[in-house]
Amino acid sequence: MHIRLFNWDRALELALNYKTHVDTVLAYRDKFLRRFNRQETNKRFLQVGQGVSIDWDAIKGKIAQEKERERQRPGAKPYA
Q1: Model's pTM, two decimal places?
Q2: Which ranges of the chain have pLDDT less than 50?
């Protein structure tokens, strides 16, 4: 949700707290910056990004697994 709202700092904070989807946040941040021909200047993103490799196939797989896990929850309602 925070990625879609371009709330990058909060998205990274949540990813680091839950130790999941860190590569997802970094990849989408990089994609966003490239679209506007910008370089990363946020020190936290630069620091975290040093040890993380971006693999779009793995990211898309994790997103698909997360969506499936949400669908399997009891009482889950599909989005309109």
Answers
A1: 0.85
A2: none
